[in-house]
Amino acid sequence: MLLVNLAQILVSGIFFPRVVGPSVLRPISDYLPLTFLDDALRQVATAGASLVDIRGDLAGLVLWAAVTFVLAFRFFRLET
Length: 80
Known about the structure:
Helix content: 55-70%
Structural class: mainly alpha
Radius of gyration: 15 Å
Largest sheet: none
Strand content: under 5%
Order of helices and strands: HHHH
Oligomer: single chain
């Protein structure tokens, strides 16, 4: 889990801009959930964006949440 999180942190643009990373990883990093969150928070903090302004990033986060919920519900079963 730590390896997945660290990889997301490094390519999603939190510590350095995504444009300085490898060009091969850029299309992948555009669709990571941490990238959506980082872009939304940066717009709110620096430009004073509202919820309407960041609706694309919010839609990406909701889509990620829905997909991971469905996958978790499908593959993880509570055995008693």
